[in-house]
Specification:
This protein is about 30% helix and about 25% strand. By secondary structure, the chain is an alpha/beta fold. Helix 10 (about 265-275) packs across helix 11. The structure holds uridine 5'-triphosphate. The site of uridine 5'-triphosphate has 21 residues, from helix 5.
Length: about 290
């Protein structure tokens, strides 16, 4: 069997959405952060659209208390649809919120013990398949989308594939950083991972962004994972243990990442996407010029 035949396709994606979203309080007291809209689509919708473009079929939401709006968003809304139909309004605008029956699974993270713990909560649904992870507050805009770029690379190399971005060296201390091995085009071998390194100790300026394709063995590592930085169970620590045992590569994302978990990143994304929209771009640019006094 050739290597390409041995590589199992990525059919499942985990969306960890059980975090508290404290940086957006009070907005996120009753509304999940992932439901905050960039223009007219909630953050979670952008991530789900990106997953579908990459061929992913099953969506697994790791939710917590107060997160039901996320699941409702992808459910049928009979009253709304019937009323819109009566008023002869097009339902096309809801098309992206439809999910094939059985393809949306929720699991509960009872206590937000960190990203690694959230992923581990999905272990029974993942079984023995490779899977993707999307952090919906990292908005990745590219053509094709970030996960599609990663799945294309994965179909060549298999194993584990994470997406990385180049940042100024002065910024590395806020992120997970890779130690790079050999590079071919946008694909770099990963020889190590360090969470929030000091600038002098950082092995590169390539930071881990919010998209991953991982092999199911990571679940066993998470099961036995001690708490790491911030007293949370860190995904980076479990991934680091897979290096050397399985292929591990990084894809440098060709596109733009907006950190919508921070307020300034959220505003930047809103402005950038509004300006890029054919239906409102001109108006928004004129408004921005007026506000800047230009
Ligand atoms: P963040 O670090 O952005 O945390 O989580 P947060 O709670 O969402 O937001 P702040 O920092 O309090 O404002 C990154 C991703 O991991 C999920 C979050 O929902 C988010 O998508 N997460 C984090 C969980 O699902 N469970 C956790 O225990 C922690």
């Amino acid at each position: 069997m050739s290597d390409a035949q041995k590589i199992k396709p990525v059919r499942k994606a985990v969306f960890p959405v059980a975090g508290l979203g404290t940086r957006f309080l009070p907005a996120t007291k009753a509304i999940p952060k992932e439901m905050l809209p960039i223009v007219d689509r909630p953050l979670i919708q952008y991530a789900v659209d990106e997953a579908r473009e990459a061929g992913i079929e099953q969506l697994i939401f790791v939710t917590g208390r107060g997160k039901t709006a996320i699941v409702e968003h992808f459910d049928t809304a009979y009253e709304l649809e019937a009323t819109m139909h009566e008023r002869e309004k097009s339902l096309d605008v809801l098309a992206a919120t439809r999910v094939q029956p059985g393809n949306l699974v929720t699991v509960r993270q009872q206590v937000p013990l960190g990203l690694g713990h959230a992923i581990w909560c999905a272990r029974a649904v993942i079984g023995d398949e490779p899977f993707a992870i999307f952090l919906p507050d990292e908005l990745m805009i590219g053509t094709p989308g970030c996960m599609k770029q990663m799945v294309d690379a994965y179909s060549q190399v298999g194993g584990n594939v994470i997406s990385v971005l180049e940042v100024p060296r002065s910024d590395v201390s806020s992120y997970g950083v890779i130690a790079p091995g050999k590079s071919h085009g946008n694909l770099t071998e990963v020889t190590g991972l360090v969470e929030k390194p000091k600038i002098d100790a950082a092995p590169s300026n390539l930071i881990i962004s919010g998209r991953y394709i991982l092999q199911p063995e990571v679940m066993d590592l998470l099961e036995n994972q001690e708490k790491g930085a911030g007293g949370e169970i860190q995904l980076t620590d479990a991934m680091a243990q897979m290096i050397g045992n399985q292929p591990f590569h990084a894809v440098t994302f060709n596109g733009t990442r907006y950190d919508c978990g921070s307020k300034t990143g959220f505003v930047e994304a809103t402005l950038a996407l509004a300006m890029a929209r054919p239906d409102m771009g001109d108006e928004v640019r004129a408004m921005a010029r007026r506000l800047l006094g230009l």
